[in-house]
Fold this sequence. Notes:
By secondary structure, the chain is α+β, with helices and mostly antiparallel strands. It has six helices and six strands; from the N terminus they run ββαββαββαααα.
Amino acid sequence: MRETLVLNASFEPLSTVTLNRAVVLVLQDKAVVEQAHPELRMRGAAVDIPAPRVIRLCRYVRVPFRRQAPWSRRGVLVRDRHRCAYCGRRATTVDHVVPRSHGGQDTWLNTVASCAEDNHRKADRTPEQAGMPLLRKPFEPTPADAMLLALGADELEGLPDWLALDDAA
């Protein structure tokens, strides 16, 4: 199912919604289409509009300040774009850089996406102990970056330059 990025009236990323929900917000005049899918159109008996990729709310919505994105296994896989931090192949698991048995925590800076083979091979050791250097360092995405990464690589390609990620993701 396609996701649509929702921007606040101030152009800050707020969330992602389904394509159907985005169309409803536009039809109710609660949002305007900032960017549409090039080939897709939403048609009805009395409606024919381009399918929204990015919408902007007409009224500003105050949201509580969130200093950091909440950690999750899915979030780590999305942050690393499902690529193994050790070999670059498709990742299906999350590996702790400092193993939990050695005091490692579930944090953005201590977890990386990993393929099952490398996760098993590294086992209960640090990358240095296992002789498996990381291809890229783990980083903590901002809440806005985490939301943009959740859209997926194919969706990110067509977004405007001013919505680019802050970090080197």
